[in-house]
Design brief:
By secondary structure, the chain is an alpha/beta fold. The chain has a single domain, classed as Uracil-DNA Glycosylase, subunit E (3-Layer(aba) Sandwich). Helices cover 28% and strands 18% of the residues. It is built from seven helices and seven strands; from the N terminus they run ββαααβββαβααβα. A four-stranded parallel beta sheet has the order 3-2-6-7. Helix 2 crosses helix 7. The longest helix has 14 residues, at 157-170. The protein is globular.
Length: 180
């Protein structure tokens, strides 16, 4: 690409949240794979869906990454998990957060109206967490979680699972054990 040619303007995905949403995970902006598929965390090496599946005890063919996207969305909402991004649109060449330019924020100040059951917000990675003051202004607990992106190779899957598991437990998103 010619260095004088600006990166394309990209439009993000709509939020996945409703009145049942207790924890909202905020990414930065969808990858090229996610934008092409019109699905959150569509890159096959992104660990979001495998982590969520592991935390909810979904294995094999029931793992969310192996299910149709509509099933993933339904499972997230049914478990009280919302998904969105801090940026509504931006210019970016490729998928790296470091390439984001001219970013426009989503209306994060509307989150409590959009999801009245919201109890907490988790930023998925550092670029999203750059906007933590905005989400903290909502008066809810706000966490910074390790990015599930394949670019975050410094964290092992086990470390990510532990961090994400603590967040899911804190906001009541882990399955409750069956009474014997």
């Amino acid at each position: 690409m010619n260095p004088a040619t600006p990166a394309p303007t990209l439009l993000g995905l709509p939020p996945i949240l409703d009145a049942r949403t207790r924890l909202l995970v905020l990414g930065s902006f969808p990858s090229i794979a996610s934008l092409q598929a019109q699905q959150y965390y569509a890159h096959p090496r992104n660990q979001f869906w495998p982590i969520v599946s592991a935390l909810w005890g979904l294995t094999g063919s029931q793992s969310l990454q192996h299910r149709p996207y509509a099933d993933r969305v339904a499972a997230a909402l049914n478990h009280g998990l919302g998904i969105w991004d801090v940026y509504a649109r931006c210019r970016r060449q490729g998928s790296l957060d470091s390439a984001i330019e001219e970013a426009e924020l989503n209306p994060l100040h509307e989150l409590r109206q959009r999801a009245p059951g919201l109890r907490g917000i988790a930023h998925n990675g550092g670029e999203s967490a750059r906007h933590i003051k905005i989400t903290q202004a909502l008066g809810l607990p706000v966490l910074k979680l390790p990015s599930t992106s394949p670019a975050n190779a410094s964290w092992s899957l086990e470390r990510k699972l532990a961090a994400w598991g603590e967040a899911f437990e804190r906001f009541g998103l882990l399955p409750t054990p069956m009474a014997e």
